[in-house]
Amino acid sequence: MATIKDIAQALGISPSTVSIVLRGNGEKRNISKSTIEKVFACAKELDYQPNIVAKRLREINSPYSYTIAVFWTSDFRASMLVRFLRGLQKAIDASGLNIEFFIRQYENDFLSMTLTESSFNMFHGAIVCNASEKDIMYIESVTFLKPIVLYNRRSPIYSTVSIDDKLIGRIAADEFYKHHCRRSCIITSESVFAGMLERTDSFISRIKEYSIEFIDTFQVNNSISGGYSGGRKLLNLPYLPDSIFCASDMISMGVLYALNEAGVSIPDKVKLISVGNGDREMEEFTYPPLSVVYIPIEEMAINCLRLLVELFPLNIAADQREIIIDTPYIPRRTCPKTD
């Protein structure tokens, strides 16, 4: 593969001149138009390919641009990445900084295979999303010399942006109580982080305070088809619950399909509240429109970037800060607002 030195030797000019031209700074450095044209023509003839790794290493040392990594799990939460990136891009645009980001997918519990000290050298900092307890133990055991912010997790070492998971369960239970519900259940998926259990445990504890009968927790795949299978299980019960708390919008959509298919009137016979981690438009156009305890993923992403930018001048994971974002209840037809 041709190098800058090969082009310089072929044209009889210095490698630094070739480098300046290929980086698009020829005119600024008063290099003649004919030399610029010769450099590009020779680069094309020799099939020159720029060294992207070297370019990024140069950018790492530039005070005017930043490169960050977003670590995101390659599981059912991949669908939530769109909302996170929407907020991240909004924050980048508002920052006035030249920030480039890269998505690094990792398998739940195996962050250590993707986030290593050597791979981290390519970035100014990172936002780690959806980390499991094992993943958090890993990053807290390693001294990274670049700043890291945790999304939707908590840590005594790293800055974090999170929500109150226990409050989510209590909000759902409070709404069912306001509607005088008497029998309730949960449809959820395998817990991949502690917050999922905190939501369901706090929901169960709250409805018991209200003397609402808790039927059971039904575990399904975190998908529309998983929610549908959960809905079919409910229809086979001797008595249908009058309130359902679902762990995600995807599960809720499947449950609604099963209940609608069976002719169950919603919300007259059954009320349903979801953890609102999907797109708001999708929630609004389910049938009936879905009531949710809303997870403000975009706002969380915005705050993740703000915390990371604050740490850039220090170049170390220091000055730990914690931001907790509100999770408002958005009533729609599956569990409407009470008078």
Mean pLDDT: 91
Number of helices: 13
User: What is the first-to-last residue Cα distance?
Assistant: 73 Å
Major beta sheet summary:
6 strands, parallel
Question: Structural class of the helix and strand makeup?
Answer: alpha/beta
Q: What's the architecture of the largest domain in CATH terms?
A: 3-Layer(aba) Sandwich
Shape: elongated
Structurally, how many domains make up the residues?
3
Radius of gyration: 26 Å
**SSE arrangement, N to C:** HHHHEHEHEHEEHEHEHEHEHEHEE
Q: Class of the largest domain, according to the CATH hierarchy?
A: Alpha Beta
Beta fraction: 15-25%
Helix coverage percent of residues?
40-55%
Number of strands: 12
Strand order of the largest sheet: 2-1-3-4-5-11
CATH topology of the largest domain: Rossmann fold
What does it look like?
This protein has 339 residues and is of the alpha/beta class. It has three domains: 47 residues, 434 Repressor (Amino-terminal Domain), CATH 1.10.260; 132 residues, Response regulator (Rossmann fold, 3-Layer(aba) Sandwich); 131 residues, Rossmann fold (3-Layer(aba) Sandwich). 42% of the residues lie in helices and 19% in strands. It is built from 13 helices and twelve strands. The strands form two sheets. Strands 2-1-3-4-5-11 form a six-stranded parallel beta sheet, with helices on both faces. A six-stranded mixed beta sheet has the order 7-6-8-9-10-12, sandwiched between helices. The radius of gyration is 26 Å and the shape is elongated.
Short account of what is shown:
This protein is 42% helix and 19% strand.
